[in-house]
Fold:
Amino acid sequence: MPTDGPSVGVPLIDHHCHGVVPRNLDRRAFEALMSESYRPAPEGASQFDKPLGLLVRRHCAPLLDLAPFPSGAAYVERRGDLGAEEVNRRFLGACGLDSLLIDTGHRGDSIANVPEMAALGGRPAHEVVRIEAVAEQVARGGASAAEFPQAFADELARRARTAVALKTIVAYRATFAIDQTPPDRREVARGADRWYGANMAAGRVRLDDVDVVRHGLWAGAELCRDLGLPLQIHVGFGDPDIYMHACDPTHFTDYLRAMEEWRVPCTLLHNYPFQREAAWLAEVFQNVYYDVGVILNFAGPQAASIMGEALEMGPFFKQLYSSDAFGLSELHYLGQLQFRRTLKRHLDRWIADGDCNLAEADRIVAMIATGNSNRIYTLR
Ligand SMILES: [Zn+2]
Structure:
């Protein structure tokens, strides 16, 4: 990282990420974690042959003592020789983080937990509790459909006591184009019956009933209001179980407005391809924050244009840093690298054009790197 220009090398709060896989990965498992698809690349093709793959081979290889641009096979082989723990320590230790906020609600049994991530990275780590995952745990734990609404509310309240934020994946499970008012008791009871009837009987617990999801949204919102926690909201790019057009966050305006009334900070995560809509929402609502985490990795050499759109309108006091890394410590490492590089690219130009100076650029970096997260999350 060049030392001239704005101080983009400052420590970052990664306000939304996940744990790394603590065991060795073969080529197929490694490539699966480079993709948001449930399916592998077609026969004869490789996930290394896309923008993210280029970044891994160029910028991660040297941390494993390889020259830039090894083949995918050579990269994964070297990773295996070093061992997962050494690899994870190298990448997480090189991130230059202040602290990590970790969403534990996705495949939590196959990845490092919060204390393990703190130990691997040598930095403080805090838990973000995913609302829909708690609902599924309660259902899996044996609560009946009739018991579910209260059992879920109690368990979410218990988990929230040690969390720094809650998170919802309503976008995956119901889209944003839904009734955003709180459901009444009868709607929740009927929703739990439908969910249990359709899924549990078939051995599935995946929560996708819209009224149960709404119940989670509002139970979570009450806890956030009462405990002073932000609510993280998944937006746009992510797993394939999504109808992208209905995950434009402007569909969720009524809920965001209600949360503004309740003074609950809402952090819109990832946002691609809706980073402009997210920045606009952050401009008009006092409580809305946003990041462009994860997509800076997936866009590789093209990431600067996405950061550019995120900077078009969003107030500097509203953007946050996240990697949204899952599974591979390479993604934690590349997330911070891409964030620093793309932010610097734009600030350098603003300075060259005479619209900004070094002192102002440093203030902007400090707000996005840690200042805004420190304002909304209670991390110490
Ligand atoms: Zn995530």
